[in-house]
Amino acid sequence: MSALERVFRSAALILSLGLTVSASAQEAPLELRGSWTATAGVNRTFAGAWTAQISPEKPNSAEGSWALMNETGQTVLEGTWAANKTRFGWQGAWSARTLTGQTFSGTWTADITGSNGKSLRQMLEWTLERDILGSWRSGRYQGRWRLKGTPRAGQGR
Q1: Exposed, middle or buried: residue 142 (CB in 10 Å: 0-12, 13-18, 19+)?
Q2: Domains and CATH numbers, the chain
Q3: Which of 3, 48, 53, 152 is the most buried (most CB within 10 A)?
Q4: Who's near 49: CB < 8 A, 6+ residues apart?
Q5: Whole-angstrom Cα distance, residue 14 to residue 46?
Q6: How far apart are CA 8 and CA 133, in angstroms?
Q7: Mean pLDDT over residues 85-112, rounded?
Q8: What are the CB-based long-range contacts (under 8 Å, 24+) for 133-142?
Q9: How far is CA 22 from CA 27, 54, 149, in A?
Q10: Looking at residues 26-31, what average pLDDT do you find?
């Protein structure tokens, strides 16, 4: 092996060690999950499950997935959502597809009073301690929703 090859190999090794240390020093995204219920109109109630991923670098943004279950617990609608905390509060958008391919989309807002200083990450973490409420809209349909967090192993609720 020539001296030049040894220099290149040493530089590559140092670079890869630096990248490994840098990558391991980064905090993993927070992942939360829970259940939700929502109303539509006067007498319609829906229920399902949600997940959220929040990057430590962006505590005021989140994205995740959600599912609507029928009375027997089978998934009948699956979708994704994304949200940001703005100066007006927590606002997001969602979309979903039925098993037959029909699509739906809409918007949502959270009703957190007196929490201007809190992040979206904190709002979702609150679901482990208390229910979070909000409203949703899709075209001419609208209603209210409620989120509950599911503690990970070793956490209580």
Answers
A1: middle
A2: 30-149 (2.40.128.120)
A3: 48
A4: 33, 34, 35, 36, 66, 67, 69
A5: 55
A6: 58
A7: 89
A8: 134/90, 134/108, 134/109, 134/110, 135/108, 135/109, 135/111, 136/38, 136/94, 136/106, 136/107, 136/108, 137/106, 137/107, 137/108, 138/104, 138/105, 138/106, 138/107, 139/106, 141/40, 141/41, 141/106, 142/40
A9: 10, 20, 32
A10: 80
The mean pLDDT value of the chain amounts to 79
| Digit-coded pLDDT (tens) for 48-94 | 999 999 988 888 899 999 999 999 999 999 999 999 887 777 889 99
* Residue 45: C-alpha distances to residues 34, 36, 84, 145 (Å): 17, 11, 26, 9
